[in-house]
Specification:
The chain is an alpha/beta fold. It has five helices and twelve strands. It has an eight-stranded mixed sheet. A two-stranded antiparallel sheet has the order 4-5. Strand 4 (118-120) and strand 5 form a beta hairpin. The chain is globular.
Length: 215
Amino acid sequence: MSEAPAGRPFFPQASPMPLDPRTAKIALRRDLVARILAIDPADRRRQQADLDERFHTLPGFSGARTVLLYAHAFPEEIDTSAMLRHTLDASKRLACPRVDWAARRLRLFHVTDPAIDLVPGTLGIPEPRPDLPELDPLAIDWVLVPGLGFDDRCFRIGRGAGHYDRLLPLLRPEAPRWALAFDAQWLDAVPDEPHDQPLDGVVSPSRTATRRRLD
């Protein structure tokens, strides 16, 4: 056993304490943003084009009447512009979320023209105008969920506000929940907490994960 220098007490070195999920997620968010922004621009364009093509083939989308999508807001996010257009071109009812900060929840609104109906909200995030028709979460048939990181169990790391983890339980249980991601967004395992809501599937250009529901 190692000995302390003369005159100083010896304390065995403690093993590093494992990070709790909440603390681990904070570090992972920083790492994931850096990973995504480091993708070569040409490779990112290729991956984005692949995701645009895969979007309408995701399970449940073709039969959905009302589709919930988010608008691209941050440089590390996939661009959903083409997906918004495709949804409208397919004669589906498009819903987009608006953050109600006071109630700490997402409110859903019917969008018919993203160029007019989506306006900069908090942090410049494009959100539906509050005068648009509001939709009940039970009206949603299919949802594309954002995230910074994903694993093979279909768990995700969001931005930390928990808005989608509170929204997803309000949807009908049979409404499919999917995510699209760049290859750099895969993790070996997302540190999950009891409130975290797994998705039905996650697709990137080179990898797919699906979850068998028990409900």
